[in-house]
Design a protein that fits this description.
single chain; mainly beta; four-stranded mixed beta sheet; two-stranded antiparallel ribbon
């Protein structure tokens, strides 16, 4: 079902119906010291994306009261919405898990869609816009209502 192959570029992963899970992501981070952060819409409790945060990104998030992440591909701060999508998040709350090795950012989306990936009529409501068909192993787009 999943294949072990070099990672394709972002667009190939974002637009495919083929399951290409990246089980090597954390092993390729090198010297980046990060924690995973689940981002949840504070109004709906919907999980809208999963990202990573460094110490610097956490400090920026606290200072700005905006969700700031660490881009593991660019090895730099990622100010959500500044460079690509325009979709930024106001930070409402930060939750810390019991082992202090992951976070939940509860946010309020500032406008429009959330994901930088777009369908023909605009941005997806969250970054989890596909589901795995348990019968066929094929990714299917979740139709928003």
């Amino acid at each position: 079902m999943t294949q072990k192959s070099p990672r394709p570029d972002g667009a190939a992963v974002e637009e495919t119906r083929e399951l290409r899970l990246d089980f090597t992501k954390l092993t390729r981070l090198g010297d980046d010291e990060v924690l995973p952060v689940a981002v949840q819409d504070a109004r709906t409790d919907e999980v809208i994306l999963v990202a990573y945060v460094s110490r610097e990104a956490l400090e920026e998030s606290l200072r700005l009261r905006k969700a700031v992440f660490w881009s593991t591909s660019r090895h730099a701060l990622w100010y959500k919405g500044r460079e690509e999508s325009g979709n930024s998040f106001t930070l409402e709350e930060i939750r810390v898990n019991c082992e202090q090795n992951s976070l939940v950012y509860r946010v309020t989306p500032d406008r429009g869609g959330i994901c930088h990936t777009r369908y023909p009529d605009g941005a997806y409501r969250n970054c989890f816009y596909r589901r795995l068909n348990l019968e066929t192993g094929v990714l299917e787009e979740i139709k928003e209502t």
